[in-house]
Design brief:
With about 240 residues, the protein is mainly α. About 75% of the residues lie in helices and about 5% in strands. The chain has one domain. Keywords: Membrane, Transmembrane, Transmembrane helix.
Length: about 240
């Protein structure tokens, strides 16, 4: 585990994580600024920021998560790290699990930190003084975190299996399109791809001349976590039985 964090210092993982935070915060605030009907004194004022994050996270996260997984995994392909790790008793599957824990901690900090920063920006910059819907806000951040971690896990598997990282990055770019496009699809179709779950975790949207809160699909997000968690364990255990 310590080895994975040591690798991060040379891979500019912190810079990528900072880009994720800045991009989502800017998009959330832009939603407020570009909305002519926004009023900081309205009861649903926080919905504007929730809608901004509901668009911003799926717009940038799939590609940047692919970059994180690719950079952290490609180092093993480049330096024959799978073999070197095996000589010290770490199987390829164990290395992938360590990468998920290490990168997952970064993604967790980024997702939670983004929610807190946008909350502070809403108070200080947007001047929102009405009561915060804390339960809905917290549920939204939790759902987005689960989807982010699920997408990260799938990209770690992909980057470990396919040596050409352009494939993983290309799929990450397509994931951004699928995540945003899924917001206009029926919920049934949004379940088809992992990126569609960003749409199921959407907390608010523009309706008529104002922003309204949307129900969060907690059961669907839970099912995603179970399925992806099971697949990740299955495939990494298969990696354990393969030659490095």
């Amino acid at each position: 585990m310590a080895g994975e964090f040591a690798k991060m210092r040379h891979l500019r993982i912190g810079l990528i994580a900072a880009a994720m935070v800045i991009a989502v915060v800017v998009l959330a605030l832009y939603t407020v600024v570009s909305s002519p009907g926004f009023s900081p004194d309205e009861a649903g004022a926080w919905n504007a920021l929730l809608a901004g994050m509901s668009l911003g996270i799926p717009l940038v996260s799939p590609l940047l998560l692919a970059v994180l997984a690719s950079r952290q995994t490609d180092i093993e392909h480049q330096g024959n790290g799978w073999l070197l790790q095996s000589t010290s008793g770490l199987t390829p599957g164990a290395v992938c699990r360590a990468k998920l824990i290490a990168l997952g901690s970064i993604v967790t900090a980024v997702t939670l930190g983004t929610g807190i920063i946008v909350l502070g920006a809403g108070r200080l910059l947007a001047g929102i003084r009405v009561s915060l819907p804390l339960g809905h806000w917290s549920g939204f951040i939790l759902c987005m975190l689960v989807v982010n971690l699920a997408v990260l896990a799938l990209h770690i598997l992909l980057s470990a299996k396919v040596e050409n990282q352009l494939v993983a990055l290309g799929i990450g770019a397509l994931g951004c399109v699928a995540a945003v496009f899924s917001q206009g699809l029926p919920a049934t179709l949004a379940h088809v791809t992992p990126w569609g779950y960003y749409a199921l975790a959407r907390a608010a949207d523009y309706e008529g001349d104002r922003f309204v809160a949307l129900p969060l699909s907690y059961p669907s997000i839970l099912v995603l976590a179970i399925i992806v968690g099971g697949l990740f364990l299955l495939f990494t255990h298969r990696f354990d039985r393969q030659e490095a």
